[in-house]
Amino acid sequence: MQLELIQAIVDEHEAWLTSEGRYGRRASLDGMDLRLVDLSHRDLRKASISQANLDRADLVSTDLREAELSGTSFSLSNLSHAQFAESNLRKSSFVDANCERA
Q1: Which of 38, 46, 63, 96 has the most other CB atoms within 10 Å of its CB?
Q2: Would the pLDDT of 1 be above 70?
Q3: Collapsing DSSP states into helix, strand and coil, what is residue 91?
Q4: Three-class secondary structure of residue 11 per DSSP
Q5: Residues 13-35: pLDDT tens digits?
Q6: Torsion angle, CA of 60/46/92/98, rounded to 10 degrees?
Q7: How far apart are CA 73 and CA 96, in angstroms?
Q8: Would you say 67 and 86 are in contact if contact means Cβ atoms under 8 Å apart?
């Protein structure tokens, strides 16, 4: 998936969160190949990112609270300071991921 499209989806999601649903739309990145993507310091609360590939992604300080992340691979990703409270992480993989202070 093109980086510009991913960034546009995340921008729309952040607008959706900020406006309490009046603008933008909830991010749906289910099943997407997001390897190596930089989503650091982004607000992805309540996003749907199930069965996705986030291997080697930069997710430093990313807010993933209440996100749907089941079956997603985070292998070798940098998740330091990421937030996962109340997220669905069932069957997700974190092989060799940096989860310091996550």
Answers
A1: 63
A2: no
A3: coil
A4: helix
A5: 999 999 999 999 999 999 999 99
A6: 10
A7: 11
A8: no
**DSSP codes, 12-73:** HHHHHHHTTTSSS---B-TT-B-TT-B-TT-B-TT-B-TT-B-TT-B-TT-B-TT-B-TT-B
Give all domains of the chain, ordered by start, each with its CATH number.
Answer: 28-102 (2.160.20.80)
- 77-91 pLDDT per residue, tens: 999 999 999 999 999
pLDDT at residue number 12: 98
Report residue 58 as tokens: 């930069």
Residue 2: band (very low, low, confident or very high) from pLDDT cuts 50, 70, 90: confident
| Residue 56 burial (C-beta neighbours within 10 Å; 0-12, 13-18, 19+) | middle
Q: Read off the tokens for 52.
A: 């996705």
